[in-house]
Write a structure and sequence with these properties.
The complex is a heterodimer of chains A (447) and B (482). Chain A is of the alpha/beta class and 447 residues long. Helices cover 36% and strands 15% of the residues of chain A. In chain A, a hairpin with an 8-residue loop joins strand 13 and strand 14. Chain B contains 16 helices and twelve strands. The chains are: A alpha/beta (447), B alpha/beta (482).
Chain lengths: 447, 482
């Protein structure tokens, strides 16, 4: 017997009698002998709960996380404060142990949460419609590019090099195998080179993808982009940091057609890269091109308000090869965490988080650039991340910071040849003045 | 309780709050001093303004309107709704895992990398594949990555013209959808009367443009593709590759392995076979395993081990590239790893009992519902509803009436090749008593179909909402609150 198997010997015998076979092994007689595994799996015997905990806790103890280190690392994934209520509500097993809400009568909880999540994403982005979530920010961007291709029937996606490098890598993979083209637009002093972009947009352009705040933390000047893209009947896709939208102009005000982003910041733990959630929202016009699950409001036979998966004619289980996407599982529980986060922070709290990010990051930037060995690389408005160039070796800087218990900035030399010796620092609302002062003091001492 | 019917936005009242943040301890500069006004938003995003108790009560009440594996029997076919062990949740929420930034130096995350590396090894042994990548986020992304690998391999051999993927008519809808996303044309192959692949038809379809065959084994009817050896030969002889949709791996653990069956690529659903909770629609995790010949095309980064030290390798020129940011759904992997360590060699028992449970139910139900193919099944089986009947009771009616009896209905109207399908997958973690209760309910419903059809047509009766107007939802889409 095993805690996860309730079968007693008596149960097994009774069931075999019903089936009219001699042994459990007989139920596998139809598997050709040549492909059967005629040995035990080479896996250790099962562990007790006590042994398991001990073993896995040892692995956890081999890591240093943001509870051990002061985190100034961002680059697309952020150490924001996560209120306690989130874990408690996301742990409710009526939510966590349910499947996709195929039977709406038994799934009003999940369905309503997603409906509220969709509403909040629309409130932040200013767009008309949101889906129930995608895998992460990068795949959401790739799905948006596919939407643009399906909607315009054009094959070229233009993407700024200030878009997150990993997002561009994922985009490249998706586009290559689908047979679509990707053109990258260089950056000029940290933001999209607008004159190059203007030249590149033409009648073959399915979409232009701009990230703001961009990978360097800078706010992009969006004022003309929309007219160039729409002038050629292409679509404008924006990738955004949802926390920044409490303060910054919404993508809809810039005329975006599709808005995507990484939703991890919204109450999801760092968890070494996942699970997170990608969000995607769009104009009403593009609604039927959206990938993935969408929840809509309707009523039941007693005219009571109710929620249900809708517009399913877009989806793989109905349309098969003609579906807008292959996505089935999304990140429903992560979207729930995002919804609870946005509810908990609320209208005022999210603004406060965003303000603190701006104030603290600017405080840090001011004091770091005052150091003799560091200078700000860009002179443009930023939200919570900024780039400094160091005359000391950037790897040495991060190594020495780590020795002092500080997780330093992202080394831009890893992805941009032009920015060797440049570090992208991130300062969220979690960092205190004394932590920032500590960072500055340590930087000053590194030679 | 079940009557709770408010949206969080309807509870909102200006100035109420549920957040708590420290006071600003640096210069209190005005935002528009550092960010020009033209970049700033003029109107607030109208997020809710509620108290902390409002938040907790609202979402708790909503959870009460939901049904999970912890609530009751959930025999959703092809979804493997087995018990989700609680200790795995505790382990995945350890600070030593949840607080790791994915871009930290690898020297600070050796435990995480070791766990992932060991999980890869375990999955390689379980699938019989040469190498596993944990990067794909879910089964369908595993499929997409797998199809990209097929293309990359064929392009490298100068056979980039192969543009056709063969997919059985019983396959999951994701298969053809993934093929389209990978730039392939999918061609459907009809199942034979036994519900399996017709080798003669397959032979006729294989040509110089065939890139490969996607196969689920056991298939979605719960039947083992007995001709797998012949199928493998036909596909490989024609220069194609064989892809295994591993959604039904719960029938095979320790019994037969995709690698030994000759598959070149398999994806696994950690949220099905390996017990991680499905979260109401994710997060999942969809690792892929491949043969030695395909290893170099796997997504980057790859985890490498050098004398007990773990690192991430992004430099593999043949790789299809990244399919997702970072390394996959790490939080889900921890739970699957813990599950495999807990089960050990008992994994085989899990599959044996899953198959025993399914066959037991099939035997008990086959005289009350139409059983289109009466062969020994694997972990799931498919009934074709009640058939023609006086009161026109449909599979939908049966499913909705099951809710009245306290059960989550099986998958319905899938696979598409069985009319009025009820696809039942009990899983191994359910007891005989639970199965008997469900069987009894289904038999009662088959009698009610004759004696009390109205009860079925109007079901469910005791849920927070009754049957919904789904046509209205699609015709006049209302996708957000205003």
């Amino acid at each position: 017997m095993h805690p996860y198997s309730p079968h007693t010997e008596q149960d097994i015998q009774e069931m075999l009698r019903t089936i009219e076979v001699q042994s459990v092994g007989d139920l596998f007689d139809d598997i050709p002998k040549q492909v059967r595994l005629n040995r035990d799996l080479n896996i250790d015997n099962g562990l007790s709960e006590l042994e398991l905990k001990k073993k896995v806790k040892q692995l956890a103890a081999m890591n240093l996380g943001t509870e051990d280190l002061t985190c100034f690392l961002g680059a697309g994934v952020y150490d924001h404060y996560i209120p306690s209520v989130i874990k408690h509500l996301a742990s409710r097993s009526e939510f966590s142990t349910a499947y996709t809400p195929y039977q709406p009568e038994l799934s009003q909880g999940t369905l309503q949460v997603i409906y509220e999540y969709q509403t909040m994403i629309c409130q932040l982005t200013g767009m008309d419609v949101s889906n129930a979530s995608l895998y992460d920010g990068a795949t959401a961007c790739a799905e948006a590019a596919f939407m643009a291709h399906a909607s315009t029937r054009r094959k070229t996606i233009i993407v700024s090099k200030t878009v997150h490098p990993m997002t561009r890598k994922v985009l490249k993979t998706y586009l290559t195998y689908k047979g679509l083209n990707m053109i990258e637009i260089d950056e000029y002093q940290g933001t999209t080179d607008l004159s190059h972009l203007k030249q590149a947009v033409n009648k073959d352009t399915a979409a232009v993808i701009i990230q703001s705040p961009n990978f360097f933390g800078l706010i992009e000047d969006m004022s003309d982009i929309e007219s160039w893209v729409h002038g050629h009947k292409g679509l404008l896709i924006m990738s955004v940091d949802p926390i920044s939208l409490a303060l910054l102009k919404s993508p809809s005000e810039y005329g975006a057609d599709i808005v995507v982003g990484e939703g991890q910041s919204l109450g999801n733990t760092l968890s070494y890269g996942g699970p997170y959630l990608g969000f995607i929202s769009c104009t009403k016009k593009l609604m039927r091109k959206l990938p993935g699950r969408v929840v809509g409001e309707t009523s039941d036979i007693e005219n009571k308000r109710a929620f249900v998966l809708t517009l399913q004619a877009r989806e793989q289980h109905i349309r098969r090869e003609k579906a807008t996407s292959n996505i089935t599982s999304n990140q429903a529980l992560n979207a729930l965490m995002a919804a609870v986060y946005l509810t908990t922070m609320g209208r005022q709290g999210l603004k406060k988080v965003a303000q603190l990010c701006v104030q603290k990051s600017h405080y840090a930037a001011k004091h770091i650039q005052a150091l003799p060995d560091y200078q700000m690389v860009f002179d443009k408005p930023f939200f919570k991340e900024f780039v400094v160039k160091t005359t000391v070796d950037s790897r040495t800087v991060n190594d020495k910071l780590l020795n002092k218990g500080i997780l330093g900035g992202y080394d831009l030399g890893d992805t941009y040849d032009r920015y060797e010796q440049c570090l992208l620092f991130c300062v969220t609302e979690k960092r205190t003045r004394s932590e920032i002062d500590h960072l500055v003091r340590e930087l000053e001492g590194i030679k | 309780m079940n009557d709770y019917n408010q949206l969080i936005f309807e509870l909102s009242k200006p100035t109420r709050m549920s957040y708590s943040l420290p006071e600003n301890d640096v210069d209190d500069s005005a935002i528009d001093e550092v960010i020009a006004e033209k970049y700033l938003r003029k109107e607030d995003a109208l997020l809710p303004e509620v108290s902390e108790l409002d938040v907790v009560r609202h979402y708790t009440l909503l959870s009460n309107k939901n049904y999970g594996v912890d609530t009751g029997f959930y025999p959703l076919g092809s979804c493997t709704m087995k018990y989700n062990p609680k200790v795995n949740e505790d382990l995945a929420s350890l600070d030593g895992f949840t607080t790791l930034h994915p871009l930290q130096p690898t020297s600070t995350v050796q435990g995480a990398l070791k766990l992932m590396y060991e999980l890869q090894n375990l999955l390689e042994e379980i699938t019989g594949m040469y190498k596993v990548s944990l990067q794909p986020s879910a089964g369908s992304q595993g499929e997409l990555a797998g199809l990209m690998l097929i293309k990359a391999w064929q392009q490298a051999r100068g056979e980039g013209h192969r543009n056709k993927i063969i997919i059985p008519d019983s396959a999951h809808g994701t298969n053809p959808a993934s093929a389209s996303m990978a730039g392939y044309k999918s061609v459907e192959i009809k199942s034979n009367d036994n519900g399996t692949i017709d080798c003669e038809a397959l032979k006729a379809m294989m040509d110089e443009n065939t890139a490969g065959l996607m196969l689920t084994n056991p298939n979605t009817l719960g039947l083992f593709e007995k001709d797998i050896i012949e199928i493998e030969r036909l596909v490989h002889d024609a220069g194609g590759l064989l892809y295994c949709d591993g959604a039904n791996m719960n029938a095979n653990l320790g019994i037969t392995r995709p690698g030994d069956m000759g598959f070149d690529i398999v994806h696994l659903n950690l949220h099905k076979t390996f017990s991680t909770p499905h979260g109401g629609g994710g997060p999942g995790s969809g690792p892929i395993g491949v043969t030695k010949a395909l290893e170099k095309f796997l997504p980057v980064p790859r985890i490498v081990e050098i004398e007990g030290h773990y690192d991430l390798n992004y430099d593999e020129e043949n790789s299809i590239g990244m399919v997702k940011s970072f390394y996959g759904n790490f939080g889900v992997m921890i739970k699957a790893y813990a599950y495999i360590l807990t089960m050990g060699k008992n994994l085989k028992k899990a599959s044996q009992y899953a198959v025993l449970n399914a066959n037991y139910m099939k035997e008990k139900l086959k005289n009350h519902y139409i059983l289109p193919i009466d062969n020994c099944c694997k972990h799931e089986f498919v009934l074709a509803g009640l058939g023609e009947n006086e009161h026109h009771i449909t599979t939908l009616d049966v499913a909705k009436r099951l809710i009245d009896y306290g059960y989550h209905p099986p998958t319905i109207y899938f696979p598409l090749i069985i009319d009025s399908a009820l696809m039942i997958e009990p899983t191994e973690t359910e007891s005989k008593e639970t199965l008997d209760g469900f069987i009894e309910a289904l038999i009662k419903i088959s009698e009610e179909a004759k004696t009390n059809p109205v009860q079925l047509k109007t079901a469910p009766h005791h849920t927070p909402v009754r049957r919904l107007d789904e046509v209205k939802a699609a015709r006049e889409p209302k996708l957000r609150w205003k």
